[in-house]
Specification:
Helix content is about 40%, strand content about 5%. The chain is mainly alpha-helical. The protein has a two-stranded antiparallel ribbon with strand order 1-2. The protein is globular and about 45 Å long.
Length: about 120
């Protein structure tokens, strides 16, 4: 799993801070981050089938927190109250898709691709 360090150091992230739009989404003086990055479905599926899916998710979370703490959010690792994550398997079980989306979470009407 040592290759994960390099993978996450070179990855791109989408970081959302919902409390910036609605202050009622967190207690006074607190905030939350939603961090998204791409990761291969087949790797996660293989980890699940091999019985170490939970361990893989924990390792991914640690590495993402490390990268963010060593770059854009230096005090992040010392301020986390709790964390949780979803994986491509989480999305598959919820949405029935393992292949992602060509437009992400589009709010355009009609959406700019065939959608059936």
């Amino acid at each position: 799993m040592s290759w994960l360090d390099r993978f996450f150091e070179l990855s791109t992230y989408e970081i959302s801070i919902p409390v910036l739009k609605d202050k009622d989404l967190a207690p006074q003086g607190k905030t939350g981050l939603i961090v998204s990055t791409l990761f291969e479905y087949e790797i996660v599926k293989k980890a699940y089938e091999s019985g170490w899916y939970g361990e893989l998710k924990e390792e991914l979370e640690k590495r993402i927190i490390k990268v963010l703490s060593n770059s854009v959010y230096p005090i992040l690792k010392d301020r986390i109250l709790f964390s949780f994550s979803s994986s491509p398997l989480s999305i598959e079980s919820y949405a029935g898709s393992s292949e992602g989306s060509i437009v992400g979470w589009s709010f355009e009407e009609p959406i700019p691709v065939v959608a059936v």
